[in-house]
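stage 2 :: seqdesign
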């Protein structure tokens, strides 16, 4: 069976006959779940679900009333898919925000059924069924804000890097600390030394970095899944105490070091915090949406995550607090300064007067990818050929 056919059959809805055959093969003819699944060209876990449902209730449907009308099968509702596809070119931001907000938006589209119970898997399948991915939606959002991104790039290139302090937060829940792949001797099973994710500490790290001094303030705490605006206010007391006041009217080249605070539009960055930053005399510089390439600390936190994974793998018996302390100390000012320079070059790349077709540095950068809008007519004609769309 080819890869294409495997992906196609994975999206099939099996009727009563197919489910009855699979259950009878396993319970009455001695087939294994894998053998029955191979006969129906489906997954073994699918057959196991039918068998478990039959043993529990005498039905081969998990819910005998809903049957095929469960949440994931929203991808077979052509009216709903067409509604999603029509919205994406005009307003792709609606499908990239917080999961709850995305589901609330999906419930407003025509074709949505109140009986559908939404989940993250439902959203992923809806996007794949309409021919989109998160990466593609992200690029579309960036293109819609390209004018704003260009304006920010001009501001960022005008400010010397030594004047900027970049701040952000990251969260670790244990699952993203494990290494699921590794190298081992040929013919021998790979032995993962990382601890189970259930035993790892859930942490949130807030960090402030600068071009010359590297990490100037960092706070790592065991927290719930998310932090709030109060945590952000408490953290700001650290970096603001080390920063200098902006001198109004003075050119950027003559301004004191560390007088600009660069941060994004995270929900916890409240108006009260913005007022405190301005009262401290620091210039607040907000990152435009969908622009992590202008954000030096994004690369720093990515480097920290990689180091933590290595530490958890190499020294699984040590405490999480020691892992974080050691890896933060490894973040050198030289590497962090290189991340600032990379973001500066990305800003130059987005300025048409410098890196555009007529710019002096046009040959130094690859052209920015432009995402073509998805044709609704082409998509509708394509799904009409799919026998599994009902």
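stage 2 :: out
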């Amino acid at each position: 069976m080819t890869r294409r056919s495997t992906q196609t059959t994975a999206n099939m809805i099996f009727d009563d006959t197919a489910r009855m055959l699979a259950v009878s093969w396993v319970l009455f003819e001695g087939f294994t779940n894998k053998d029955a699944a191979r006969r129906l060209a489906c997954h073994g876990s699918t057959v196991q679900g039918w068998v478990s449902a039959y043993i529990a209730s005498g039905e081969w449907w998990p819910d005998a009333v809903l049957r095929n009308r469960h949440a994931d099968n929203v991808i077979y509702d052509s009216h709903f898919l067409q509604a999603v596809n029509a919205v994406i070119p005009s307003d792709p931001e609606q499908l990239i925000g917080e999961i709850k907000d995305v589901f609330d938006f999906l419930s407003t589209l025509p074709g949505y059924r109140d009986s559908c119970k939404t989940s993250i898997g439902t959203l992923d399948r809806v996007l794949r069924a309409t021919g989109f991915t998160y990466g593609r939606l992200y690029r579309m959002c960036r293109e819609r804000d390209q004018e704003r991104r260009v304006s920010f790039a001009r501001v960022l290139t005008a400010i010397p890097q030594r004047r900027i302090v970049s701040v952000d937060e990251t969260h670790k829940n244990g699952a993203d600390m494990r290494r699921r792949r590794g190298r081992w001797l040929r013919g021998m099973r790979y032995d993962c030394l990382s601890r189970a994710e259930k035993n790892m500490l859930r942490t949130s790290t807030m960090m402030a970095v600068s071009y010359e001094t590297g990490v100037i303030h960092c706070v790592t705490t065991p927290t719930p899944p998310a932090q709030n605006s109060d945590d952000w206010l408490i953290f700001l007391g650290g970096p603001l105490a080390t920063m200098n006041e902006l001198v109004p009217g003075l050119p950027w080249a003559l301004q004191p070091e560390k007088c600009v605070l660069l941060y994004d539009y995270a929900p916890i960055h409240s108006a009260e915090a913005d007022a405190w930053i301005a009262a401290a005399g620091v210039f607040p510089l907000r990152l435009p949406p969908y622009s992590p390439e202008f954000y030096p600390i994004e690369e720093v936190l990515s480097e920290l995550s990689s180091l933590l994974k290595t530490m958890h793998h190499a020294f699984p018996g040590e405490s999480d607090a020691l892992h974080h302390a050691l890896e933060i100390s490894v973040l050198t000012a030289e590497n962090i300064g290189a991340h600032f320079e990379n973001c500066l070059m990305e800003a130059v790349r987005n300025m048409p007067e410098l890196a555009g077709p007529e710019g002096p540095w046009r040959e130094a950068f690859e052209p920015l990818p432009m995402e073509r809008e998805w044709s609704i007519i082409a998509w509708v004609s394509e799904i009409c050929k799919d026998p599994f769309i009902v």
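stage 3 :: structure notes
- The chain has 16 helices and five strands.
- The beta strands are 164-172, 203-210, 214-222, 260-263, 283-286.
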